[in-house]
Amino acid sequence: MSECEEKKVFRLEEVKKHNNVQSAWIVVHNKIYDVTKFLEEHPGGEEVLLEQAGQDATESFEDVGHSSDAREMQKDYYIGELHPDDQFKENSRSKYVTLGNEESQASALSNWVIPGLVALGVALIYRFYMST
């Protein structure tokens, strides 16, 4: 099922039952993914997914810093949404940073590009004054 199709809604109690190798569901940003068939393929090992199975894995998912390819692959395992009464509130957790968004791109600019340009400028000025 893709995210574009009609959304199925699950209660958290149902999700909690899917916490083993026979059936592993995880919740990421209140979306539910059946990762059972992905357990053996997961680059971090199946244990990592099984530790999160049956519960909200948003923080762990974001802490790892998954690639845009990994985020795209998520769509293949999407099965539905967490019921509104069971949804996790974003403000009750730390703010999640998504790789590839404007914030992280701006952060990369300020952390690497600007200091690099400053160092290049200093090197050019130093070289100019040392050659005269």
UniProtKB/TrEMBL annotation:
Keywords linked to the UniProt accession: Electron transport, Endoplasmic reticulum, Heme, Iron, Membrane, Metal-binding, Microsome, Transmembrane, Transmembrane helix, Transport
InterPro entries, per the entry: Cyt_B5-like_heme/steroid-bd, Cyt_B5-like_heme/steroid_sf, Cyt_B5_heme-BS, Cytochrome_b5
Gene3D superfamilies: Cytochrome b5-like heme/steroid binding domain
Compartments (UniProt record): Endoplasmic reticulum membrane; Microsome membrane
One function term, GO molecular function aspect: metal ion binding
PROSITE patterns: CYTOCHROME_B5_1, CYTOCHROME_B5_2
Subcellular location, principal: endoplasmic reticulum
GO cellular component, one term: endoplasmic reticulum membrane
One Pfam family this sequence matches: Cyt-b5
Bilayer topology: Single-pass membrane protein
TM helices/strands, residue ranges: 112-129
Domain Cytochrome b5 heme-binding: 7-83
Entries under PANTHER family matching the protein: CYTOCHROME B5 (PTHR19359)
Family, similarity comment: Belongs to the cytochrome b5 family.
Protein name: Cytochrome b5
